[in-house]
Amino acid sequence: MKVKSEQEMLLFGESFAKTIKIPTIIELVGDVGAGKTTFVRGLAKGLGVKEPVTSPSFTISKSYALKNGGFLVHYDFYRLQSPGLMAEDLQENLSNLKNIVIIEWGESIKDLLPENHQRIEIKYNEDDSREVII
Ligand code: ADP
Ligand code: MG
After folding, report:
1. Position 33 in a domain
2. Which of 47, 52, 65, 83 is least enclosed by beta carbons within 10 angstroms?
3. Which residues of the chain have pLDDT under 70?
């Protein structure tokens, strides 16, 4: 699917939110600047999250309360060579059946993800558009 602008990526995330059945685990794949965090912003809006969503690249994880009592938990493992203690935090969040867990740069923790998780890949096109593969 072609996503032409940042605005369209936000709208795509927002509409994707409506398709989610909780619990859900989503792996986001794509280079730096592809639009992974932008997608999460739209997703959070679609889930009714009112707080601003910022990249968790420094904090590794950020959580946003959902209406069902669970959380949208957003990870970015880019800075971690190995997940260390964050692996336990991740496992705890993965096992909460009220959560939506969404992961950027999950290579180092891929063994912790169930096989049936969703995977969304975002690729650069030559113009500013992106190709999104679900
Ligand atoms: P990532 O999390 O993949 O590193 P971000 O979502 O943080 O990427 O940043 C994507 C950047 O690319 C933003 O600055 C956004 O404005 C810009 N951008 C330009 N075109 C698009 C597009 N079609 N989809 C998503 N982001 C886009
Ligand atoms: Mg990001």
Report:
1. yes
2. 52
3. none
The reply to whether ligand 1 has any atom less than 6 angstroms from the CB of 33 is yes
> Does 128 contact ligand 1 (Cβ within 6 A)?
yes
Structure confidence by residue, pLDDT tens digits, 107-131: 999 999 999 999 999 999 999 999 9
Nearest to 61 by CA among 103, 96, 92: 103
Ligand 1 neighbour 32 (Cβ under 6 A): yes
Residue type, 110: K
Question: Which residue's alpha carbon is at the smallest distance from atom 15 of ligand 1?
Answer: 6
Question: At 72, which amino acid appears?
Answer: L
Enclosing domain of residue 30: 2-69+80-125
